[in-house]
């Protein structure tokens, strides 16, 4: 949808007052359309609500913003728009004057406010003129659609024509602002909101000249309300200079939306058999000059590119778009200087020139160099590494590609090649840059991470940001790789940044929580223990699971803090349950990084003593895939835990050759395997669980089947000889209170009869 990007701006994190107001106004507009409410009341209410919400947000912003005059002017414009919508019905017979003066006042106040708002990114005059020519044809289409929809009986022809021209111009301007290349800055969002607001006011003046009693005036409610809210949101982003993630709309929307509006407006005339009037014919003919001007601009661009030295570059560096455009060479990037990479202005100029070219225009590669142990490498040697890396890059890139400084330990490469050739260039750069660097007796090995972004019409700053985001993703994935930019990548990185920002201090703020999943004996279907599972209840990000939480904690170096909190809280809960004479054990997961610390056994013993928990009630689990690199240390720590009386478990056992080989060395009491081992495969008709259970019997290890989701898997595991089971088919992870209720219903104390809860139902916790 056209308005999906601005609506996402208002509601992307949590329901806001603005989103709630929009949701409540929708049924009011519907009620006015069917005649349940007066149209004048609905329009007045919408204008008042929008002006109030936007005005409150702008007034708060003005109180803490250095750009106070601009914000106050925009706030005054919003208030004027709200008064224009709400007051004219009360001023009859002066409503015509108020309806006409309102848009003029809003345009004046908002125009001055936009000029003083920071973050306005103005392209060159030539680019603005070309964009104006490109928008001419769809703008005429919107004007013609407005003229066809204009009621002829309520206004004279000149007034209707002026209103149609105003509606079409405002509609095209708002469409360009909200879906164009400069939508990301806050000033562009604010400008689009102003244009939508003016569009709504013009609709009011055009569709309800005799007052607001007509239902046609309800068409002004959506652009008016949404426009005022976008003015406030855009002003906040522009002042904060922290624009949100880019979700650019396709350029074809500027052509499709006017065409669709024109078809909808023409349908009633064609269906009724009415002949077009003279004004309609003249407006239709007005499309021709705009088409001619647009083609003249394109022809001038083609002529300029053909006359430039870029036309003489090798074919490999100027890929053609299609067989009909073989003469249109992709413009070359400026020649790089002989010594050192180019500076940032040269980089921005090269990206701006490529952005004006027809697609595929080119690509930007941002290279990050990382030297392991860089803190002990002298600064002069690091400079030598960067100089040598630039020299190697120049030997790989094309003669007209540009190498420019990108800040930090890296550089950027601008190429006119298409996306496929640009990715191939990135792989060649990666191979050249990761070769050892020799300086006298010193030999350094460097890791390289390359982010790749295609050059588009969004502007040089956007392309730089996108390529840098791709570079950061390459760093996160382990370096020595080339990563593309895409919208999903940006969402992942924004999510990762939010996690890294909010996670530190989560323990101190009391945001961590534990849930517990019972472990059930398969023979009698009774609970024998639980596994403590970590949950982060973030007020900003919601509930975050360990699969997403722990990698971030490891990168931040706080995974130990989280795991010791989990162990402490689990032992405290276990002590409370043990006071009720329940013979249960508690399993806690630890990472190999924390397990291999020298004081892990001593600190575990201290926690058990602090809560007076019998050691055999605690089970420490370690994941099998991470054991291999630290096998000897893991064996020593598990043996130390068993000497205390603590039971140990190997989680996520994969039943592979290497896993079976190292199983003999690990001092464990429980072996946890996935339910997939229970299901036979065509290659191995006999389920692997039989092999694992037989091996466990020989080693004296009990087997626990986890992640069980069906009764068939439970029956198969029981027939194979597994003693315990865990999974959604038995019980889901829930809070301690619900686990206690589950124990009350299905648990038993010594001497109690043995109830058998439903296997597939999972009791109260399923």
Report on this model:
This protein is globular. 54% of the residues lie in helices and 12% in strands. Strand 6, helix 17 (460-476) and strand 7 form a beta-alpha-beta unit. Helix 7 runs antiparallel to helix 13. The strands form 3 sheets. An 8-stranded mixed β-barrel has the order 8-9-11-12-13-14-15-16, surrounded by 5 helices. It is an alpha/beta fold.
Keywords:
5-stranded mixed beta sheet, cyclic-guanylate-specific phosphodiesterase activity, alpha/beta, 8-stranded mixed barrel
List strands and helices in order, with pairings:
Elements: H1 4-11, H2 17-34, H3 39-64, H4 68-86, H5 95-116, H6 125-134, H7 136-149, H8 157-179, H9 186-207, H10 221-240, H11 253-272, H12 278-285, H13 287-307, H14 344-355, E1 363-370, H15 379-396, E2 402-405, E3 410-415, H16 419-433, E4 437-439, E5 442-444, E6 447-454, H17 460-476, E7 481-484, H18 487-502, E8 512-521, E9 526-538, E10 542-544, H19 546-556, H20 559-578, E11 585-590, H21 592-595, H22 600-611, E12 618-623, H23 631-644, E13 647-653, H24 657-663, E14 670-674, H25 688-699, E15 702-706, H26 711-720, E16 724-725, H27 736-746
Parallel strand pairs: 6-7, 9-11, 11-12, 12-13, 13-14, 14-15, 15-16
Antiparallel strand pairs: 1-3, 1-6, 2-3, 4-5, 8-9, 8-16, 9-10
Helix pairs in contact: 1-10, 2-3, 3-4, 3-10, 4-5, 4-9, 4-10, 5-9, 7-8, 7-11, 7-13, 8-9, 9-10, 15-16, 20-22, 22-23
Region (Disordered): 303-342, 746-766
Biased composition (Basic and acidic residues): 314-328
Keywords: Membrane, Transmembrane, Transmembrane helix
Largest sheet: 8 strands, mixed, barrel
Which percent bin holds the helix content? 40-55%
Kindly report the average pLDDT value.
Answer: 75
- H/I helix tally: 27
> Any idea what the radius of gyration is?
34 Å
Shape: globular
Strands, count: 16
Low-confidence sequence ranges: 1-14, 242-249, 305-339, 748-766
Helices and strands: which structural class?
Answer: alpha/beta
Main β-sheet, spatial strand arrangement: 8-9-11-12-13-14-15-16
End-to-end distance: 40 Å
């Amino acid at each position: 949808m056209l308005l999906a990007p601005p609506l996402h701006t208002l509601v992307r994190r949590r329901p806001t007052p603005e989103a709630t107001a929009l949701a409540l106004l929708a049924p009011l507009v519907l009620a006015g359309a069917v005649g349940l409410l007066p149209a004048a009341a609905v329009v007045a209410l919408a204008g008042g609500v929008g002006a109030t919400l936007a005005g409150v947000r702008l007034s708060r912003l003005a109180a803490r913003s250095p750009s106070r005059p601009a914000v106050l002017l925009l706030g005054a414009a919003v208030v004027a728009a709200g008064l224009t919508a709400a007051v004219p019905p009360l001023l009859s017979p002066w409503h015509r004057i108020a309806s006409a003066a309102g848009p003029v006042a809003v345009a004046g106040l908002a125009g001055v406010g936009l000029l003083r708002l920071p973050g306005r990114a103005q392209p060159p005059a030539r680019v603005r003129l070309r964009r104006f020519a490109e928008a001419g044809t769809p703008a005429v289409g919107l004007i013609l659609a407005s003229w066809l929809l204009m009621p002829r009986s309520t206004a004279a022809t000149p007034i209707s024509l002026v209103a149609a021209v105003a509606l079409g111009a405002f509609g095209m301007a708002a469409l360009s602002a909200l879906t164009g290349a400069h939508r990301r800055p806050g000033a562009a969002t604010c400008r689009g909101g102003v244009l939508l607001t003016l569009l709504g006011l013009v609709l009011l003046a055009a569709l309800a000249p005799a007052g607001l009693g007509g239902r046609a005036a309800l068409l002004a409610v959506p652009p008016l309300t949404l426009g005022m809210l976008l003015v406030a949101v855009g002003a906040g982003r522009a002042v904060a200079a922290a624009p949100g993630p880019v979700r650019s709309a396709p350029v074809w929307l500027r052509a499709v939306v006017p065409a669709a509006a024109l078809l909808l407006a023409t349908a009633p005339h064609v269906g009724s058999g009415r002949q077009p009037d003279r004004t309609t014919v003249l407006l239709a003919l007005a499309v021709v000059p705009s088409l001619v001007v647009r083609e003249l601009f394109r022809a001038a661009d083609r002529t300029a590119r053909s006359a430039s030295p870029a036309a003489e570059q090798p074919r490999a560096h100027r890929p053609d778009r299609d067989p009909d455009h073989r003469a249109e060479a992709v413009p070359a990037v400026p020649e790089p200087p002989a010594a050192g990479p180019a500076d940032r202005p040269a980089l921005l100029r090269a990206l701006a020139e490529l952005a004006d070219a027809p697609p595929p225009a080119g690509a930007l590669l941002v290279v990050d160099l990382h030297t392991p142990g860089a803190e002990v490498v002298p600064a002069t040697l690091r400079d030598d590494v960067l100089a040598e890396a630039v020299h190697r890059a120049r030997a790989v890139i094309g003669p007209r590609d540009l190498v420019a400084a990108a800040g930090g330990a890296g550089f950027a490469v601008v190429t006119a090649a298409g996306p496929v050739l640009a990715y191939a260039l990135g792989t060649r750069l990666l191979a050249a840059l990761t070769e050892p660097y020799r300086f006298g007796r010193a030999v350094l090995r460097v890791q390289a991470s390359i982010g790749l972004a295609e050059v588009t019409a969004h502007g040089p700053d956007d392309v730089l940001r996108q390529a840098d985001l791709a570079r950061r993703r390459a760093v996160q994935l382990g370096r020595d790789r080339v990563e593309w930019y895409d919208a999903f990548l940006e969402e992942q990185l924004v999510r990762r940044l939010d996690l890294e920002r909010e996670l530190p201090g989560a323990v101190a703020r009391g945001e961590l929580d534990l849930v517990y999943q019972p472990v059930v004996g398969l023979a009698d279907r009774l609970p024998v223990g639980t596994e403590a599972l970590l949950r982060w209840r973030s007020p900003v990000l919601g509930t975050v699971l360990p699969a997403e939480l722990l990698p971030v904690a490891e990168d931040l170096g706080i995974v130990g803090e989280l795991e010791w909190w989990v162990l402490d809280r689990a032992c405290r809960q276990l002590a409370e349950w043990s006071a009720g004479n329940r013979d249960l054990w508690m399993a806690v997961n630890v990472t190999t990084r924390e397990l291999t610390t020298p004081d892990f056994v001593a600190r575990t013993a201290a926690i058990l003593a602090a809560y007076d928990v019998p050691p055999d009630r605690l089970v420490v689990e370690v994941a099998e895939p991470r054991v291999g690199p630290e096998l000897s240390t893991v064996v020593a720590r598990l043996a130390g835990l068993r000497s205390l009386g603590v039971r140990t478990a190997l989680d996520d056992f994969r039943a592979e050759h290497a896993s079976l080989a190292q199983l003999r060395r690990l001092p464990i009491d429980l072996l946890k395997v996935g339910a997939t081992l229970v299901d036979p495969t065509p290659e191995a008709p006999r389920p692997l669980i039989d092999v694992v259970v037989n091996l466990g019997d020989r080693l004296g290890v009990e087997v626990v089947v986890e992640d069980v989701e069906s009764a068939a898997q439970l029956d198969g595991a029981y027939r194979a000889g597994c003693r315990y089971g865990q999974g959604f088919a038995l019980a889901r992870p829930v809070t301690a209170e619900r686990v206690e209720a589950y124990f009350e219903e299905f648990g038993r104390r010594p001497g109690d009869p043995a109830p058998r809860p439903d296997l597939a139902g999972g009791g109260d916790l399923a």
